[in-house]
């Protein structure tokens, strides 16, 4: 599902900005603010009516941004993301119908996992890049390392999201099974709505500096 080239891009970035955009017109300046701070991967979430239009605007006007879509809960949404030009799709959980549709249409897709049973279901579809969610509430890095131990020889990659921030992201990125972390704190919904691009750029710069210390980028 995730090609080696796509996985390498995500690993080089080290962080994927996770965003809730309520106005499509905010999408392009938001993408530029993140890029100015050195973050070139983002996951828009399908939680607002503006999400798909925001994705289309970014893929059209900011092609240097690796833009995907999260919170894909139905097969129909997977198709919409593919048609909107999404580079990848993500879900909070593992839904076989969504997975099968993503495979069918060629949308790189990372389902959410939180248990060994989730991992083994993903392995049925030969998936190798998975979203670990919710990361910190589930037990954090220590839990992920224990859960991954029986599968470590398979080279699975996990993108953790949930409870991560500038103070704990390096611990995650120091783990070779983690190509990148999801960062929702970089551009919170109220900050985007306030169009505070300077703060978003500053948050992105801080995160990229930490990722660089972990050898990313």
Q: How does this model look, in words?
A:
The protein is α/β, with parallel strands linked by helices and 217 residues long. Helix content is 46%, strand content 15%. It is built from eleven helices and nine strands. β4, α5 and β5 (109-110) form a beta-alpha-beta unit.
Features:
217 residues; alpha/beta; TIM Barrel; three-stranded parallel sheet; 11 helices; globular
Task: Give the helices and strands, then pairings.
Layout: H1 4-13, E1 15-19, H2 27-36, E2 41-45, H3 51-61, E3 66-70, H4 75-83, E4 89-90, H5 96-105, E5 109-110, E6 112-113, H6 116-124, E7 129-132, H7 135-138, H8 140-148, E8 157-160, H9 169-173, E9 181-183, H10 189-193, H11 197-213
Parallel strand pairs: 1-2, 1-9, 2-3, 4-5, 6-7, 7-8
CATH superfamily: Aldolase class I
Distance between the termini: 23 Å
Q: Radius of gyration over alpha carbons?
A: 16 Å
Structural class: alpha/beta
Our count of domains comes out at 1
Please sum up the structure shown.
This protein is of the alpha/beta class and 217 residues long. Helix content is 46%, strand content 15%.
